[in-house]
C-alpha cells in the first residue's frame, strides 16, 4: 500500500543531493508524531528476524515541470509517494499528513494539496513485472578471485555474476520479515538503466534502475511493490514505478 501526496511548489529545481536524501527523515518524522515507539524500534532495531526497515519512498515527481538540462526540474503540481507493506505505517503517515499544510524537502517547500491511498496491483497471476525509478542497491560478497574479501562496499549491477543470487535473497528476507510466503523468485531482468551513485549521508551507494519479472504468491508480490526492490529502501533506493 502507498500514499500519494499531491504537492505544489514554486521552486524550479532540486539540488541533486536533495532529490532522494530527505525522504528517509520525512518518513521517520511523520511516524514519530503518532507512533514514536514504532519509529524508535524501526530506527534502532529494525523489524522481524532480519532487522529490516519495511518502508520506501519515491522522489518528488513533477510531470509538467519544464525540463532543465543536467538538473532535477520541479515546479507546479506534482506528487511524492511513500509506501510500506505494513498497514500500520501507512495509516500513521496518513493521520499526520491530513493535518500538514507543507513538506520541507531538502529546503524546498512542497505545499500539500491532498493525500490518496494507492493499493497495490492484484498480481493474482503470480507474476509481476516491476520497474524501479531509483537505483536498486545490492551488495555482494566483496570477495576477489582468490576468495579474499577486498571490500565491504561491493555494490553489484545486474550483469555481474553475484547479482541474481543476492537480489533473490533480499526478496526472500523481505517476505520472511513481514510473514508472507517467501517462495518468490527472480525470473528475468528485462531492462537495466544507467548506473548511479547517490550520497546518503554516510557515503555513497550505487546501483542502477532495473525492470525485473518476479514469480511468487500474490500477497508477496504486492508487499514488494509497496516496499521496493533490493536493499536500502528506507533511503529511497529501489522504488517501484506505480
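Q: What amino acid sequence fits the structure above?
A:
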Amino acid at each position: 500500500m502507498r500514499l500519494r501526496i499531491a504537492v505544489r511548489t514554486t521552486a524550479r529545481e532540486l539540488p541533486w543531493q536533495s532529490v532522494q536524501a530527505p525522504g528517509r527523515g520525512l518518513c521517520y518524522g511523520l511516524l514519530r508524531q503518532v507512533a514514536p515507539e514504532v519509529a524508535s524500534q524501526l530506527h534502532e532495531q529494525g523489524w522481524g528476524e532480519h532487522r529490516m526497515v519495511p518502508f520506501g519512498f519515491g522522489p518528488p515527481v513533477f510531470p509538467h515541470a519544464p525540463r532543465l538540462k543536467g538538473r532535477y526540474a520541479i515546479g507546479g503540481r506534482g506528487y511524492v509517494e511513500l509506501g510500506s507493506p505494513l498497514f500500520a505505517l501507512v495509516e500513521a503517515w496518513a493521520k499526520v499528513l491530513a493535518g500538514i499544510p507543507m513538506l520541507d524537502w531538502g529546503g524546498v517547500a512542497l505545499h500539500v494539496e491532498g493525500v490518496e491511498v494507492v493499493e497495490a496491483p492484484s498480481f493474482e497471476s503470480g507474476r509481476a513485472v516491476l520497474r524501479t525509478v531509483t537505483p536498486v542497491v545490492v551488495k555482494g560478497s566483496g570477495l576477489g578471485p582468490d576468495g579474499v574479501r577486498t571490500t565491504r562496499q561491493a555494490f553489484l549491477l545486474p550483469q555481474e555474476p553475484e547479482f541474481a543470487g543476492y537480489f533473490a535473497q533480499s526478496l526472500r528476507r523481505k517476505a520472511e520479515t513481514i510473514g508472507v510466503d517467501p517462495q518468490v523468485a527472480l525470473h528475468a531482468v528485462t531492462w537495466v538503466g544507467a548506473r548511479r551513485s547517490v550520497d546518503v549521508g554516510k557515503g555513497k551507494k550505487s546501483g542502477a534502475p532495473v525492470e525485473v519479472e518476479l514469480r511468487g504468491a500474490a500477497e508477496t508480490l504486492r508487499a514488494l511493490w509497496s516496499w521496493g526492490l533490493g536493499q536500502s529502501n528506507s533511503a529511497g533506493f529501489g522504488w517501484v514505478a506505480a
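Q: And what stands out in the fold?
A: The chain has a mean pLDDT of 95.
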